[in-house]
Amino acid sequence: xxxxxxxxxxxxxxxxxxxxxxxxxxxxxxxxxxxxxxxxxxxxxxxxxxxxxxxxxxxxxxxxxxxxx
Length: 69
Description:
Blueprint: H1 5-18, H2 34-48, H3 53-64
């Protein structure tokens, strides 16, 4: 007799709880929405036209280098 998906999920969650885990919901922006695309474009234009662009990009580049490189 096969186990229902609901029962498999229940068992899986019980196993995770035994391991000290707990469920959590995370809400993130919908990157496929037009609103997100407009806002990303707006922010990228602000960055691209920033008078401090070169200095800020240099900081990002420096911060992006790993110690072992």
